[in-house]
Structure formats: structure tokens, C-alpha cells
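Sat 14:20. Reprocessing the chain from the morning session after the first attempt stalled halfway. Input below, unchanged.
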Amino acid sequence: MEQNEIVKHIKQQFFVYRNGIIADNLRRAGDTHSVIFGLNIPQLQIIAKKVGKNKEAAIDLWENSSSRESRMIAPMIYPKDEMLFEDACNWINTVENTEIADNLCHKLLRELPFAESLIMEYHDKTRDILRYISLRLAMNLLILGRLVNINEIHVFAQNEVERNCKMTILLAKDILEETNRK
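Finished this time. C-alpha cells:
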């Protein structure tokens, strides 16, 4: 199947699984995507598993930033061994909310050999969402036992708590709790 056919098939699956109640709830909760089908993670994983890994389709879907589900499934089908540091940075810089950030970190970024470098790249940025991504990725690696620079991340989390940013403070406190155990 060609790339265009794969993307078309994925979008058809979005229609099959669509849930108007969830979509409406997401809109009321403030999701800014203009296209929301209301799929949950397990449904997206079913679709992703059937499609398999496909870099070009993942890129096409990620670039469709108006669709929540396109942004959610793209990290699931991107082959981790083909993502470069610059590509990861480009994706991170276009994340629009914490749901997309959480999914990107959990489904793709934490699997990359340079994941910790991404944390350090974004830990001190002025945009809240970028620091959130750095914290979320740090938490992913911490839980997996793959975080090397635990002391640096602890200091980063302390600084973030002092910043008192609504988006990041709870995650920063969680990281402090976890790093105190190490």
C-alpha cells in the first residue's frame, strides 16, 4: 500500500471508531483541534498495530495539526530507529497541548537513544509546554530506570517547582519525589 493509501486508510479508521460524546467532552475541556473524532488510546493502538511502522505516513499525520487523532497516532507509527535528533526537536516544537506531549513522550521520544539529550535541550525554555515535555520525558526515563543524570533532573524539577507554573508544577513535584527515592 502506498503512503497516501495508508494515510487514507488510517483516517477511515478514525471515522469507524469515532465517538461524538468523547469528542464533545474534549472540546468542552478546551482541546483546540478543529477535528476531534473522540478516539481513545487503545483504539489508536489497534489502528497503529494494523498499519505498522511507516515514517512517511507518520510525518503526514503529524503535519495534520488540526486533527487530534492524527497527532496522537503519528508517534505510534514512526519507526524509532529512523528519528533523528533534529526531527524530534521539530516535533517537540510543534506540540500544542499536554495530551499530545504525553503521548509523544510515551510512544516515541522515550525510546530514542538521545532521549536524555532532548530533556536537557528543553528543560530551561521559556514556553511552558516545552518544559512540560522535558519533565514528562524525564519522568518516563526515570520510571524505566534509564535516566542517567538524576541529580541534574532533580535540580531542574526543583527550579520548576519554584517557578510555580500551573502546567508543570505537579509533574515537577512527582519527579522530586521519585528522585529523592533514588
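The mean pLDDT is 96.
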